[in-house]
């Protein structure tokens, strides 16, 4: 099926782990939105060694799905990257299994890809439990060191707006650019901060991320991770990944000061009863050599192609553009 207004095609990539119930609930909305768009499409589900009947459910009810059944559990980045590798179409929708799409979800997003420097776009996410907006346009907040310091802001329909990052729950991205970045950084497995990292690498590579309020979906917030991991483990892994995120994207004197302050804070974290933070720091150190190499390779490649934009510049540019949008909305 082809949309008369676009020659784009879509690969929907859904990472799954023990999500049979979620797939049964939400896959019908994915197909409805794809058919409504009249674009050529495929649906890919990468299963991360589920122990429920996810694989059997998919085979019995959705035989057209490209199913990748993994024998070992690799975590989010590893799992979704296998789905990305199988994708064949122009655009890739990175979609959580706990997302339900509105029928017209794709209609307002395709236009962004007419611009050659568009990496991707995300839509508005509604919390299923409350009916309120759970995620929207990501606005970077002022901070000397904190990268994951942002807020969700409302954008009026019809206004083009950058987004600091694209939520991994519902990001529509260019497959070509996604593959050039190497997909998600698997050092962040099993979960958390990989979507922020991916978007920042896109920005630092000279590309742009957008927010489209007309593309609406519903999300059972964080149900996938929280249902399978303890609070302590989530906190520890999230902290480790936050440290890795900062190491990758900070640079020069800012990176040096951040590393000193982080190290000096460790005794105070222990005194405050945050032993998990010290554990996370140790895990961060174990990954540091690999991340250092990854960072050097990325930066050298972006500089060689004449695209590299430092994180500080990226953040300032996004904030400036969004401030302009907010000023227009208040007039």
TrEMBL record:
Keywords: Glycosyltransferase, Transferase. CDD domains: GT_2_like_c. Signal peptide: none annotated. GO terms for molecular function: glycosyltransferase activity. InterPro entries: Glyco_trans_2-like, Nucleotide-diphossugar_trans. It comes from the Bacteria. Residues 11-180 form the Glycosyltransferase 2-like domain. Pfam families: Glycos_transf_2 (PF00535). Belongs to the glycosyltransferase 2 family. This is Glycosyltransferase. It comes from Mucilaginibacter celer.
